[in-house]
Write a structure and sequence with these properties.
The protein is built from ten helices and 14 strands. By secondary structure, it is of the alpha/beta class. The chain is globular and about 55 Å long. The protein starts with a strand and ends in a 6-residue tail after the last helix.
Length: about 325
Amino acid sequence: MKIAVVILNWNGKKLLEKFLPSVVTYSQEATIYVADNASTDNSVDFVKTNYPEIKIIENTENGGYAKGYNQALQHVEEDIFCLLNSDIEVTKNWLTPILQEFNTNLETSIIQPKILDYKNKNYFEYAGAAGGFIDKYGYPYCRGRIFDTIEKDQNQYQNTTIFWASGACFFIKKEVFNTLKGFDESFFAHMEEIDLCWKAFNLNYKTKYIGQSIVYHVGGATLQNTNPKKTYLNFRNSLFTLTKNASGILFFLILTRLLLDGVAAIMFLFQFKFTHILAIFKAHFSYYVALPRLLKERREILNKKVYYQTKSIVWSYYIQGNKIF
């Protein structure tokens, strides 16, 4: 199988200067692409001048992660897509175990490597860690990262089937990506990979974690956790994903979720993060506006399976005190 490493870029010249060298050095098995979302910082010229071997795909607008990749991947012919954030340092032989898994286990459709923190390389990184799962109410968590608790990497998490793979470094077969019709572009950014993996799960595609492949992620390089826009996107897109894909009686799931989101707003109140409270309200308003479309998409998914291991990660973490996976 041929593999393409596709780096989505928007005004990320400084990140490309810092992290492209490791990708070029350690990705000799792959064709490397930079997919640019209409940058204005000369990052495309930088790549063309310094890395003429890298293929450039120029999107006409900044459509975010979802639309940006959907547009770019139409121009990529390789059998496997690696969607790689521009703030990731890869390591020697990082692609070898990925290709081995795809070649030997044909049922594997999506893969995530071990994602460690670039700033503290002995610890997992927030966005994906050792593979993702989701609770009954749509809250995501990872092996090695639950809410703000980050574990030290001691090789405690082995290769296994996971529920979702992080979009920071996301491998998927081209044929599967096309069958799933790509990312939901209404998400713009954040949690679109969970939505895609959930669709894949309901169609019996397998998502795997392969810990022999290691990358280091800066995290928050585009949108930091302190930014209320990130709060808005995470809360809204989580509701989108839950509504579209979850099994069970939707009314009770959403009602419980709305109550839990209210608790989150109260926590922001005590932290004097008023813009984040407003972001949650905006997220819910946007969700109600989109609800007819989401319900239509839900009806199109005929086989919605039980998707969660933990009923409530909020209860487990905050009430029962279970801080690690």
